[in-house]
Design a protein that fits this description.
The chain is mostly helical. It has five helices and no strands. Helix 1 (33-59) packs antiparallel against helix 3 (115-142). The longest helix is centred in the C-terminal third of the chain and has 31 residues, at 146-176. It is elongated. Mean pLDDT is 81; it is low at 1-6.
Amino acid sequence: MAEPKPKRVKGALPSCPKHFMNNRSGVRQNFPPLLEEGLCGVSSVLMQLSYRLLALAEVFDQSNVALARVSKFFLEQSEEEQRAAEALLKHMTNRGGYYCSKTLQKPGCEHVGDVMTALHIALNEWKTILGYLEELYNISIDLSDPHTAGVIKKHFIEPKVRKVKVTGDLLTNTRRLGCTQDGKSSFGEYLIDRLEEELK
């Protein structure tokens, strides 16, 4: 008799409809299928975020904007998200999990022309991913997988909390310096680019 399919992950986690139909490794390392599906979905979201942050870096590297340190900040964040996605995939592989490759969508940053809008986009993305990671942490505790719970908390949740704090501070400073979300450059954006400690 065939083994019943595990139930899908409930909640806000990004789903992976094809995940259970794909062949998985025979060596499973006591890796719960629901947790594997959740990690697969979150790693894809991290890759998509990396692509979006790279697009934001390109916005501020254009000759008509030319905020070099802001561009470098988003580029470094993009690289960090790429490394985080690769670390999740490595954890899945070590546990005998399977990753379903997905097509990355267009980043949708064409309307961005100012620092405040870009920071709002990044902050909202990081808050969403932080929610996904907290849900994955709770699932791993519920499914008695302390190894995955420890990895998620130490290597993913704690760095994202710091990113949310830094980005919130940057947003506060852009408001204090009179930056707006109307897509127009201002002297406040120049000051943010030149003086903000978090961009170093």
